[in-house]
Amino acid sequence: MDMKNKDVEHIISNAFDQANPDLFNKIMEKCPNMETQNIRFSFWKKIANIFSSRKFAYSFSSFVLILAVSFVWLNQETPITQKVFSAIAIDVNPSLVLELDEDDKVMNVIKNNADAVIIVGNMDLIDVDYNVAVNAIIGSMVTNGYLDEFTNSVLLSIKSDDLVHEELLMSEVTQTVYNYLKGSAINGSVITQELSEDEAIILLAGRLDISEAKAELIYEITLVDPRVTLENLAKLSINDLNLFLESKNYTIDKVDKIGKASELEYMTKSVAYQLALSDINLSSIDVIDYEIDFEQEDGTIVYEVKIETDTMKYKLLVDSIDGTILFKEEKSIESDDEDEDDFPIEALTEEAVVLIIADHLGLNVNLIEELDIEKEIENGVAYFVISFEYNGLEYELEVDAVTGTILTNSLDESGYNYVDEKDEEDEEH
Q1: pTM of the model
Q2: C-alpha span between 106 and 92 (Å, rounded)
């Protein structure tokens, strides 16, 4: 049945009359002498009439309604916008960011790509402790096949408003991820870095269509090695970037790592070496010296094989999966000496380079033995290749000829890496 306006008014009026009886009579009962006091009588009568009017009924009812609604609204748990205190970016192929409050609880989960959506799935990580959230995410990556014995590398990027807390968070998150992978029978490797949130990095990430964390890492690599490009590095997976970092052993202040990147996806170095020998029609007995390590070529991981005979030097790039020879360069020992004439005049002296290396590694320069220094120019970049023995170990480094920047730092034959072992010793202590 439709209700007319007058009917509604009648209902409201009756309800108000019941809740508010005749106020005038009540007032008169309390004031028996008021009849002889015309002024007071008139005043109270007007007050009573106001309270008894329909207009006041509507106004008062509205006021009560507003007051009730306001009370309910104010007592609700309304969301309060909190400031993000810390952030943990996790990159494998899935890429996501955990934003944390001051208590290290998850405030928000940013999914940077479709793979991250799969990883998070139906998990509700809001208000969860960061370590629980990190374990859940890494566990999901293992379950969904993003992390296994072939792809075992994780990039962790940490940022916090408190620098002391940032260092603590970085250490704890790194160990959490590393221990989880170890417990899952995956010999994982974790790369850690500070996340700068620099505007230039944000723009770079957008231009290359990668995460800010990955953009940060490849940018830092290009600062120490101008021979590589941002575009090529952006094409590499996190595991491939890890292999590349291991092969070059760059010294990057903001970047650390534990564990060894998996090589199981690629052919062995010995197979790549034999393929290179076959291509240049040599046998191992013809070789005086050789080097083989991972390199990147146009965003692909390849093997770089350097071979030296009595008269020739060879450099080959071998596809790390199918063994295709992608590039081959050969030069005689004599012509190699001629190339030294193209070295920049502003290049450091060999003596200065040796001092830089000794200082970098903490070695006594007077105890360096079997020192050999070669000049190289690659993609317009001049650098020294320095090899030597120290305390029974064989070192080989590449150093920018002009700036003195350590481009690579490794040891021959044994595969022993000075920096990695030093880092492991520090972790144990």
Answers
A1: 0.67
A2: 20
Output the pLDDT for position 364: 86
Residue carrying structure tokens 């062995």: 268
Residue 48 lies in a domain: yes
287 phi and psi angles, rounded to 5 deg: -90, 130
Instruction: Give the DSSP letter string of 99-127.
Output: EE-TTSBEEEEEE-SHHHHHHHTT---TT
pLDDT of residue 303: 96
Same domain, yes or no: 275 and 168: no
Rounded CA separation 331/184 (Å): 49
Q: What angle do CA 62, 11, 6 make, to 5 degrees?
A: 95
3-state secondary structure (DSSP) of residue 76: coil
Strands 300-308 and 95-100: unpaired
Same domain, 159 and 227: yes
**Tokens matching residue 328:** 């081959």
Would 80 be classed as within a structural domain? no
Q: Is 148 exposed, middle or buried (0-12, 13-18, 19+ CB in 10 A)?
A: middle
Radius of gyration (C-alpha) of the chain in whole angstroms: 37
List, in sequence order, every beta strand (DSSP E) within 64-168: 86-91, 95-100, 106-111, 153-160
| Number of domains comprising the chain | 4
| C-alpha span between 218 and 224 (Å, rounded) | 10
- 221: which 2 tokens? 């690599």
d(C-alpha 261, C-alpha 241), whole Å = 9
Residue 64's domain spans which residues?
5-74
HSE-CB for 97 with a 13 A CA cutoff: 17
As a whole-number percent, the residues of the chain with pLDDT over 70 amount to 75
Confidence band of 380 (pLDDT split at 50, 70, 90): confident
Can you tell me the distance from the alpha carbon of 160 to that of 148, in angstroms, rounded to the nearest whole number? Answer: 30
Q: Which of 376, 374, 368 is nearest to 393 (CA)?
A: 368
Among the listed ranges 38-52, 127-141, 280-294, 403-417, which one has the minimum average pLDDT value?
A: 38-52
Strand 325-332 to strand 312-319: parallel, antiparallel, or no bridges (unpaired)?
antiparallel
Residue 424 lies in a domain: yes
Q: Is residue 56 within 8 Å of residue 50, measured between CB atoms?
A: yes
* Residue 326, domain member (yes or no): yes
pLDDT at 254: 85
